[in-house]
Inverse folding.
């Protein structure tokens, strides 16, 4: 999945959302605006802040489920691999205790890590777009915010689009505020 980005100035007020085509597959058949929460989370040390934009984005019937599927990041995938590895390791150790013998010749952790990574990669690998979709997850994403250093006021929003046709329509509708 490739993604194109557009930066818009935030000072102009509301963003105009094109509603005539699906933002995921560009279909014009049975397209309706669906409330969508677009979030951007910034981490600093152990804490962070989340910015949420609530837009009504257009989806066709087939793409509507993607409106609520927030994209997963590398941190999330890494945590899932850790959880699966830990669970599998406990299962392997439990079986070995019950059988009173070693199953993997002391390589229990590495086998658990490999299986955990394989399971997680297979799970997320199966999450592919179908039937002309450009993304299994939300096709419109907030990628970056530009803010004033002293006040934190948002001055611009960088938006990512997986659908080039929809991005072009978005650019046209918001031409007065598009910066890139």
């Amino acid at each position: 999945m490739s993604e194109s980005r557009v930066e818009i100035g935030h000072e102009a007020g509301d963003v105009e959302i094109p509603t005539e085509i699906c933002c995921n597959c560009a279909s014009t058949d049975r397209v309706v605006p669906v409330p969508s929460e677009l979030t951007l989370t910034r981490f600093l040390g152990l804490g962070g802040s989340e910015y949420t934009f609530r837009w009504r984005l257009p989806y066709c019937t087939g793409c509507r489920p993607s409106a609520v599927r927030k994209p997963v990041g590398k941190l999330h995938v890494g945590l899932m691999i850790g959880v699966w590895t830990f669970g599998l390791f406990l299962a392997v150790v439990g079986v070995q205790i019950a059988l009173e013998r070693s199953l993997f010749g002391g390589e229990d952790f590495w086998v658990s890590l490999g299986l955990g990574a394989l399971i997680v990669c297979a799970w997320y690998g199966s999450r592919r777009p179908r039937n002309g979709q450009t993304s299994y997850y939300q096709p419109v994403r907030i990628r970056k915010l530009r803010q004033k250093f002293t006040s934190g006021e948002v001055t611009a929003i960088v938006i990512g689009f997986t659908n080039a046709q929809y991005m072009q329509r978005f650019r046209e509708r918001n031409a007065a505020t598009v910066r890139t």
